[in-house]
Amino acid sequence: MNSPNEKAVSQPMMSLWINGAAVQPSGPRSGVVTNPATGQVTRRVPFANAQDIDAAVKAASAALPAWRNAPPLRRARVMQKFLALMQANQKELARLASEEHGKTLPDAMGSVQRGIEVIEFACGIPHLLKGEYTENAGSGVDCHTLRQPVGVCAGITPFNFPVMVPLWMFPVAIACGNTFILKPSEKVPSASMKMAELFKEAGLPDGVFNVVHGDKEAVDAILNHPGIHAVSFVGSTPIAKYIYETCARNGKRVQALGGAKNHAVVLPDADLEFTADALIGAAYGSAGERCMAISAVVAVGAIGDPLVKMLADKARKIKVGPGDGEGVEMGPLVTSAHRDKVAGYIDTGVAEGAQLVLDGRNQKVAGHENGFFLGTTLFDRVKPEMKIYKDEIFGPVLVVLRAASIEEAIALVNANPYGNGTAIFTNSGGAARRFEEEIQVGMVGVNVPIPVPVAFYSFGGWKSSLFGDLHVHGVEGVKFYTRTKVVTTRWPHEDTPAAGLNMPTLG
Ligand code: NAD
């Protein structure tokens, strides 16, 4: 929860969104939402309890039969109207994301756009739900498959993408014929409410999409409710693991995306300036609060010294300020507690003996003295056993490790427990191909620092960055939100052999 200030109690209280309407929760618990650029509380957010989750499940269950039986094309038409409304409201959604998260407005616009692209993908659902058919799988016997919705689905999302990450989930789930309960991060709750209103305006029947707010209490009520059949989670690794284990124990379908430590491997033949620019954007964009941020650079051979110098020169010039400020390139961190935690990692790095090339701890922004700002920070000569390498810092702190060869660099990346994203910078096709083949990471860039897959591919990491089998959106998202049924059919006629007691073979 954000730290309240004395004005908090006078700020407006938000609502939950259940059965197509804004409703107040049944219990008294609430949190506060803070503008990270000013440090001021802007609104209060009600925390749902088990009773509220039950009300959301009842609404979603009641809406399910009609929605799942609606022809996919009719569902797609609602998605198309939702798409148009989301496009018309893109700036407002970006403004909300920027105000509550702290990221810059252009960055927020980009992330909302990437989310909207998932709605575009979901508009093609009639095609995506088509099954398989085999005529004469056996003599006179045909086989076909059906893709049917799973039921009531839930999504639990992190603070860093208030619009995009929820959109990874619910458009696909709902287009597939499921109903959905979203529990966004309590730090950035407003954009989800706006999307619920827009979806209703698009013609979505009440109860198909619901939004509940809250913390662990709300999440546990979701995980333990027998009326919820599938859970998608995106957040930190310890919570992802907890979600995965609890859902598995409760017999729910689950995909739980976790944290990251994304490496960029820079080979000696890489274009120095191009690479440095790419790394600066990937490390410090959104103040490093991206699950696909590059937080570790592995500099191979002689490129290390000039690369570190160029990174420092460029990082020093980044304009830090409020997300809606003119020309601002990097905003504040999400809460004061998180800013202090990241600053603590800089202390740790110094104590561990890493070389602090650029120190962001004394960053000040005129006129925003109470904002949660931290400047760009760069460490060199970091060793794999250091805490600043091992932990996900999730802030504007880039660490550089040195390696003597591509073999050493690949081994380093593969030894890391995370496996979300990675990138190689090189002019050698052979080296890039080798990297692509050997690296144990779910999303790989070749001279692309943040290889976030487009909506019609699927997004997901490996190892401690994803618990579960299927990635989000794209074809894997459709698979996650549907169950396959295989139907075997025979229409008897005079030549049909009589059934016997032996295992039938159809050839
Ligand atoms: P978080 O794990 O603290 O919270 C995520 C969600 O879980 C929130 O809705 C929160 O309310 C809930 N939650 C928090 N603590 C809980 C608990 N003890 N029990 C049950 N639920 C709990 O993550 P965050 O700080 O909001 O987001 C940052 C993290 O998310 C980073 O680790 C980042 O790498 C990760 N992330 C991963 C991806 C990905 O695709 N792999 C994408 C975005 C963010």
Question: What can you see in these coordinates?
Answer:
Strands 14-15-16-13-12-18-19 form a 7-stranded mixed sheet, with helices on both faces. The protein is built from 16 helices and 22 strands. Helix 3 (90-101) packs antiparallel against helix 7 (190-201), helix 4 runs parallel beside helix 6 (164-175) and helix 10 crosses helix 11. With 507 residues, the protein is α/β, with parallel strands linked by helices. 52% of the residues are buried. The protein is globular, with a radius of gyration of 25 Å. It has helices at 50-69, 72-88, 90-101, 105-122, 125-128, 164-175, 190-201, 216-224, 237-249, 272-284, 304-316, 336-352, 387-390, 406-415, 429-438, 474-480, and strands at 16-18, 21-23, 30-35, 40-46, 133-138, 141-149, 152-156, 179-183, 209-211, 230-234, 253-257, 262-266, 294-300, 355-358, 377-380, 397-403, 418-419, 421-425, 443-446, 462-463, 466-467, 482-490. Bound molecules: nicotinamide-adenine-dinucleotide (NAD). The site of nicotinamide-adenine-dinucleotide has 27 residues, from helix 8.
Rounded to an integer, what's the Rg over CA atoms? 25 Å
**Anisotropy-based shape:** globular
* Distinct small-molecule ligands in the complex: nicotinamide-adenine-dinucleotide
Quote the distance from N terminus to C terminus: 63 Å
The oligomeric state of the chains shown is: single chain
How many structural domains does the protein architecture include? 2
> Share of helix among residues?
25-40%
